[in-house]
C-alpha cells in the first residue's frame, strides 16, 4: 500500500503550532480528524502516548513517526505535520523533530501498518527529501513532494 | 575414533573429561568435540561407550568414573574441565571430589535428587567445592518460566547480563511480521531496533538477507536490547491479547518441575491452575503453593479443563513424566482454545517431531541442562552460549580483547565468516545494531548467531592480531 493512497491532502498540516510532544500528538490527531471526524480524539492521543512511553518514535534527523493501534477502525489512517521551529520529541539523536507522520492502524492489520511504516522510514532517510519537505511552501506542495518521491522508492 | 580431517583447532583448546554417556553426556561430547576440544568419555557400560566412540570424535574409557585408577588412566592430571553427568548423584559428586584432589580447574556435576540450593539445603556447591551443580529438572523449569514470561516466544536466552535478549518467534498468518522482507525490517530499525539473525523453515535454518521474506510457519530468531523490547512486544502483540488481564496458565503434572514452574509463575503474577491425577499429591501441592488452584483431574479430562477455563487460558504447560501424554494433552488443550502450549519432551526423536504437530515450544531437561553446562564451561573469549533447539546452531557472546585483529576496522572491510551473523554490539554504555560501518573496540561485548560449522571460524575471526 502506498503512502500517497493513504494520505489525504486535507490531513497535512504545513505549519504545526505545537511546542511540546503532548501538544503535537493532539495537533496531528486533529489533522487526522479533518478526514475521519468520527475518531475519538482523547482515545487516539492516549494510545499514541502509551506507545511513546515504550520508546520514542522520534527516529532522528528531525523525523518522528508516532503510531498506534486502534480497535474498531476499518483502515489505516495517516496524517502529516511540519513544525518550522522543531519540537523536542525525545529522539535518539537528541535533535528536535520537524517532520511528522502519524499512523493509526486497525488492531487486526498491524502487518500493513508495519509495511507502511517501513516505506515512510525509507522515504525520509533521504536527506534531499527531508530538505524538500522542510522547504515546501504549503500543504499542497508537501503532498506533491511525497507523491513524486514515493515513485522513485 | 580419530577422523582423518581434524576439526579446526580452537584458540582456547581444552582437555575435557566427561563421566556418563547418557543424553546429557552424549550431547556435551558432541558439541565440545565438534568445536575441536579434546574430549575423553568414561562410562561403565561398554556398549553405550562404543556407540559414542563410533559416532563422535572422542576417546572412550570403560570403568567407574568415581575410581581414581580409572580417572588417572583417562588423563585426569592434564584435564581442564571435569563433567560428571551419570544417572547417579552420588557417583557424580564423588567423582568431582576425586577430580578436585587432582587440581582440575573446573568441576561440574549433575545432581537430580540431592537438595543443594534453597533454604533447606544442607549441601551447597561451595561446601563441596564444585563449580557448577546442575539439576536438569530445575534447569528446564527455569526455561519454561522464562518462555511463559516472554509471551509469544519459544526460545529465550540472555546475554550481556540480560541487556541483550535472544528470542524465537513462531510466525502465524496474523503475525505483523508475516510477509515482511528483511529489507523492510531494516527500514524500520529507526523505530523497532532488532535483528532477525535466523529463520528456520521446513527443518532448515538460514541466515536471511534483504530479499528474504518472513513467511507463515517460519520460526524466526531475533536479537534485541531489553530497552527496545517493550515497543517490539507492543507491535507483535496480537489482537486477542487483552492488556491489564492476569495471564492464565494451566500446568499439567505436579511433579518437581510442575511445582517449580507453578511457584515461578505465581511470582510473576500469573493466574496458575495445576492439574494432577494423584489426589495425595494434589493435597501436598495445595499446601505448598499459596495462590495456585490445584485441580485433581486427568489431563485428558476435557470437561473439567473447560469448566476451569482452558478456552481463555494463555498457556498450557505439560510437564508430566510421560512424553506421549504431554504431547497429546497439549494438542487437546490447543483444540479447546488455549493460546500457547509448552510441552516437556524427553525423547530426542519426539523433540523434533512435536513442532510440526502444532505445539508452540518443546523443552527438554536434557537440552536445558546441557546448555547450562555448555554455557558454564565455555571459557576464554566466549562469555556465554546458548544452544538453539532443533537447529544445532548456537548464540554466543564474546568480548573483544585489546589485542584482537578486528579492532577499529569497519566491519565491511573484514571478512566475517559465512554462516554467522552479529546480532548486537554492546559498548561500555551504549549498544548498536551492527552495520558495515560499525567498528569494534576493545572491551566490546558481541552477540553472535552461528551455525555449527561457522563456530570455530568466528573464534578465529576475533583472535589476536
Automatic annotation (TrEMBL), chain A:
One of its GO terms (cellular component) is cytoplasm. Gene3D superfamilies: Mannitol-specific EII, Chain A (3.40.930.10). It is found in: Cytoplasm. Its main location: cytoplasm. GO terms for molecular function: transferase activity. PROSITE patterns: PTS_EIIA_TYPE_2, PTS_EIIA_TYPE_2_HIS. Keywords: Transferase. SUPFAM superfamilies: Phoshotransferase/anion transport protein. InterPro entries: PTrfase/Anion_transptr, PTS_EIIA_type-2_dom, PTS_SugarTrans_NitroReg. Residues 5-149 form the PTS EIIA type-2 domain. It comes from the Bacteria. PANTHER family: PTS SYSTEM FRUCTOSE-LIKE EIIA COMPONENT, PTS SYSTEM FRUCTOSE-LIKE EIIA COMPONENT-RELATED. This is PTS fructose transporter subunit IIA.
Amino acid at each position: 500500500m502506498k503512502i500517497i493512497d493513504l494520505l489525504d491532502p486535507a490531513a497535512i498540516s504545513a505549519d504545526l503550532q505545537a511546542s511540546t510532544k503532548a501538544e503535537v500528538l493532539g495537533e496531528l490527531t486533529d489533522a487526522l480528524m479533518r478526514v475521519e471526524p468520527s475518531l475519538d480524539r482523547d482515545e487516539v492521543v492516549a494510545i499514541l502516548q502509551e506507545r511513546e512511553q515504550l520508546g520514542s518514535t522520534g527516529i532522528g534527523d528531525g523525523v518522528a513517526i508516532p503510531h498506534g493501534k486502534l480497535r474498531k477502525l476499518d483502515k489505516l489512517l495517516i496524517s502529516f505535520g511540519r513544525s518550522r521551529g522543531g519540537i523536542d520529541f525525545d529522539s535518539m539523536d537528541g535533535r528536535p523533530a520537524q517532520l511528522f507522520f502519524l499512523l493509526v492502524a486497525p488492531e487486526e492489520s498491524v502487518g500493513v501498518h508495519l509495511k507502511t511504516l517501513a516505506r515512510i522510514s525509507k522515504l525520509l532517510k533521504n536527506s534531499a527529501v527531508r530538505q524538500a519537505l522542510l522547504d515546501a511552501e504549503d500543504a499542497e506542495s508537501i503532498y506533491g513532494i511525497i507523491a513524486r518521491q514515493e515513485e522513485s522508492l | 575414533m580419530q577422523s582423518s580431517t581434524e576439526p579446526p583447532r580452537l584458540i582456547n583448546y581444552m582437555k575435557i573429561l566427561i563421566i556418563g554417556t547418557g543424553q546429557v553426556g552424549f550431547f556435551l561430547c558432541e558439541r565440545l568435540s565438534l568445536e575441536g576440544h579434546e574430549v575423553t568419555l568414561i562410562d561403565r557400560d561398554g556398549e553405550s561407550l562404543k556407540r559414542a566412540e563410533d559416532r563422535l570424535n572422542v576417546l572412550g574409557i570403560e570403568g567407574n568414573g568415581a575410581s581414581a585408577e580409572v580417572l588417572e588412566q583417562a588423563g585426569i592430571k592434564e584435564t581442564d574441565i571435569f563433567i560428571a553427568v551419570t544417572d547417579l548423584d552420588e557417583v557424580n559428586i564423588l567423582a568431582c571430589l576425586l577430580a578436585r584432589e587432582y587440581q582440575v580447574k573446573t568441576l561440574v556435576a549433575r545432581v537430580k535428587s540431592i537438595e543443594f540450593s534453597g533454604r533447606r539445603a544442607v549441601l551447597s556447591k561451595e561446601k563441596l567445592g564444585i563449580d557448577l551443580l546442575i539439576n536438569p529438572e530445575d534447569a528446564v523449569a527455569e526455561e519454561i518460566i522464562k518462555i511463559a514470561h516472554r509471551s509469544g516466544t519459544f526460545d529465550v536466552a540472555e546475554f550481556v547480563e540480560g541487556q541483550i535478549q535472544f528470542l524465537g518467534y513462531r510466525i502465524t498468518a496474523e503475525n505483523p511480521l508475516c510477509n515482511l522482507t528483511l529489507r523492510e525490517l531494516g527500514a524500520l530499525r529507526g523505530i523497532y531496533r532488532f535483528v532477525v539473525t535466523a529463520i528456520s523453515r521446513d527443518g532448515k535454518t538460514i541466515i536471511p538477507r534483504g530479499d528474504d521474506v518472513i513467511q507463515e510457519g517460519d520460526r524466526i530468531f531475533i536479537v534485541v536490547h531489553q530497552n527496545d523490547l517493550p515497543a517490539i512486544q507492543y507491535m507483535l502483540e496480537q489482537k486477542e491479547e487483552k492488556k491489564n488481564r492476569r495471564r492464565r496458565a494451566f500446568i499439567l503434572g505436579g511433579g518437581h518441575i510442575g511445582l517449580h514452574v507453578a511457584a515461578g509463575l505465581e511470582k510473576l503474577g500469573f493466574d496458575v491452575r495445576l492439574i494432577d491425577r494423584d489426589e495425595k499429591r494434589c493435597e501436598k501441592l495445595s499446601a505448598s503453593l499459596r495462590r495456585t488452584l490445584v485441580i485433581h483431574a486427568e489431563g485428558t479430562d476435557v470437561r473439567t479443563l473447560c469448566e476451569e477455563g482452558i478456552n481463555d487460558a494463555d498457556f498450557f504447560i505439560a510437564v508430566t513424566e510421560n512424553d506421549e501424554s504431554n504431547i497429546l494433552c497439549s494438542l487437546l488443550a490447543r483444540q479447546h482454545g488455549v493460546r500457547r502450549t509448552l510441552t516437556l519432551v524427553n525423547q530426542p526423536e519426539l523433540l523434533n517431531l512435536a513442532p510440526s504437530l502444532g505445539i508452540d515450544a518443546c523443552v527438554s531437561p536434557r537440552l536445558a541442562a546441557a546448555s547450562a553446562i555448555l554455557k558454564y564451561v565455555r571459557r576464554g573469549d566466549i562469555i556465554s552460549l546458548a544452544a538453539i533447539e532443533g537447529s544445532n546452531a548456537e548464540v554466543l557472546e564474546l568480548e573483544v580483547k585489546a589485542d584482537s585483529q578486528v579492532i577499529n576496522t569497519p566491519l565491511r572491510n573484514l571478512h566475517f565468516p559465512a554462516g554467522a551473523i552479529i546480532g548486537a554490539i554492546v559498548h561500555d554504555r551504549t549498544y548498536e545494531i551492527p552495520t558495515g560501518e560499525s567498528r569494534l573496540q576493545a572491551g566490546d561485548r558481541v552477540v553472535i548467531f552461528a551455525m555449527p560449522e561457522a563456530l570455530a571460524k568466528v573464534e578465529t575471526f576475533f583472535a589476536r592480531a
